[in-house]
Amino acid sequence: MRPSFPLSLVFAVVVLHAATPPQGVRFQGLAKKAAAARDGGHVEEALSLYRRGTVLQAGWVEGWWNLGTLEYDRNAFAPARDAFAHFVKLQPDAAPGWAFRGLCEFELKEYRASLEHMQRALLLGLDQTPPLSKVTRYHAALLLTRSGQFQNALQLFSQLAVQGADDRNTILGTGLAGLRLPLFPADVLAPQEELVYRVGHAVHEGAVRHEAEARKEFDTLIEQNPHAPELHNLLGQLLLTSDPDAAVAEWKKELAISPDNTPSQLQLAFEYLKRGDASAGVPFAREAIRVDPGSFVAHNALGRLLIASGDLPGGIVELEMAKKLAPDSPDTRVELASAYAKAGRSLDAARERAEFLRLKKGQ
Questions:
Q1: Do the domains at 1-113 and 269-363 have one common CATH topology?
Q2: pLDDT tens per residue, range 286-316
Q3: Which of the residues 49, 71, 122, 328 has the least number of beta carbons within 10 Å of its own beta carbon?
Q4: What is the 3-state composition of the chain as percent helix, strand, coil, each rounded to the nearest 5?
């Protein structure tokens, strides 16, 4: 999936506060020649001129953008990456610059940097350029899946479904995230492909609120694959809003098949917390920590459940562990502030409330 729109049109959207082009007869002449070469389709000449121009004026925002897009269009991803790196240094709030930098890094298999920069682009906002928004979400979702961050990947795939992305690779990617398989769509083996696609299609239908169709597909998949992991977990997530009791039943069926399925354990823990039945939720949170001791979500869940069941000191210990594992989580900070307040630790509570407000402001 690649952007299929004139990249030059994006520039007018992203450069909101670009510096005034540097003055000087020599530079102005070079800039005009570069633009004419670009508009005339003389790519090599345009590249040469833009390179010279950015050497003359390192702060030439438009020059770095055009250099990056020209290199990107001819699949020269390393120089394109470098040009976009200069561009975002000058325009740090320009989401498309970060998106293209991340897309270049994806092609260069610099996956960690790619994911970081595409997530930054999505955080800054790409709504004014929907095609770029789609392609960035897609590649970020692939990398989240590959790195085992399946739930975060499913969130992006759900957003893509709402945006109307329903091509085969997107559906396969959705299925991989749903089945918790850390692969790219191109790496799916032939015997797996039908199951992965059908799971992806069912999740896609749920994301666009076709619940009846999605449930029918999951029911068929479960009937045909009674021992396949993740299917009951995904069906439970689908049913949570409309039929929470059925969702709970599905998660328990999942745990009968896959006892170490942390998503089902955590879903049950939080559902029992929501219902005010903390004692029923505690065992599921403890099991989630046993399976994944580094999960801040599991420690957060157990902390809140322990506090709700009357064990305030134990709950604080778990919330402090959640904070240690994910210091930028505002939800943990606000829960910890409340717990400290209940324990009479007013200074600690004030500190955590201040951190909560700071983190929420930065989101």
A1: yes
A2: 999 999 999 999 999 999 999 999 999 999 9
A3: 328
A4: 75, 0, 25
